[in-house]
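Entry 12.
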Amino acid sequence: MNPEFRRNIWLELTPRRIVLMAGILALAFFAAALPGGLSYGPSSIAKWLYYLIVVLWGTRSAALSVVGEIRDRTWDAQRLSSLGPGAMTWGKLFGATAYNWFGGLICLVVLLAGVGVHQGAAVAAVEAVYYVVIGIIAQAASLLASLIAIRRGQGHSRLEIMLYQFVGLGAALAVYLAWSAADPVAALVPQLHAPDTIPWWGHNIDARAFLLVSLALFAVWILVACYREMRLELMLPNAPTVWTAFLVFLGVYFAGFDSWAKSNSSAATLDPVGIRLLLVCTTYVFATYLMVLLEPKDRVHYRWLLGQLFSGRLGAWLGGLQAWMVSYIAALIAAAALFAWVGRSQAFGEDEALALAVLGLMTRDAAIFVLAHTFAGGGRGDFAAVIVLVALYALVPAILNGMHLENALVLFYPRPTQPVWIGPLVAWAEGLAVGALAVMRLFAGGARASAAATA
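Predicted 3D structure (tokens):
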């Protein structure tokens, strides 16, 4: 058995805690079963207790699985042990939450018994997969958030632990809303008609089956993300191949919803292939922004990457790319494919200009994050970059609107211009200028560091 998992089992599943959990749940179900007891039946009580124990409480246990070791100053000793990243990840994720899963499985048995009696064994089996998946995704998201924060050098205060837990709760809410979209009984707005099928890649697929497989796949990917973050925490390198595979998965997954995007006026003129390429490009743009915010911006690593690129060692350069860089390259490739496909049947117009401007401003914004980390106090660079982006996209445009200088708004976000090429030209000029400044700052910092080491 995994040593870390076994250690957590010994700590979490003590006889006293087992008896306490089983006794409290038995009393709750017995009270719900009596005619004059609780207002809801045992199955309904079991559902809410499952969410309380596995999702709400379980996300906190997962968030504390590594952060708690750091707080107790035992994490360094564990990192130096012979445990690999796989054993450490599964041991922390499922060992630290073993007590939550013990109570959750009791609730799940009662819940599924009620579902099986009223709706049949097939529905009960589907519900079982859903409840297990929402618990895994919620807890894994909390663990992943804590590992990312640790790598960024953030602390382990109560507020920060609560933020990691909120990430897991947000993931659970997203899963619940997605699942409820095809379940009128569980939906937040039951009077809305739940779709029986979901159109994907031109096929109408049963909604519950499609959502179940989708949730299972995303659960696998978030577990892979926890494993990769644990590798970095144990000082093991990560090749960009897994992130590239995830981007391919995202592109294929979201490109299948082209029939839903046809209702958008900006995409109505595109054929199905063009809409799919647009969805892929949009997905990769969002991935770039998300990862450039989350990943640490190590100036030494960036200088090394530039050195490998300028020296022509492309293999080493590709192997050292961060996830946001891979996403950025993927967004450019998807956009190039989109422009090439659209250019077969129509000339360069306003929609194409806006898309090209988005790419230029994405370049500018990513460079702002890197540039912010080249200044003194770079540990707060992400916060400074976010403040700058808020000013560029909201505050300064609001001032210009108040001063009736609408023509200057093209400097801050994509908007139609006449002629149409002005917007992309301005956006890419800003992106290349900020990118060049960031590169200059990186090399300048490296020169200062070398001079200090020589002295």
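Annotation: Residues 422-454 form the longest helix (33 residues). The chain has two domains: 1-238, 347-447.
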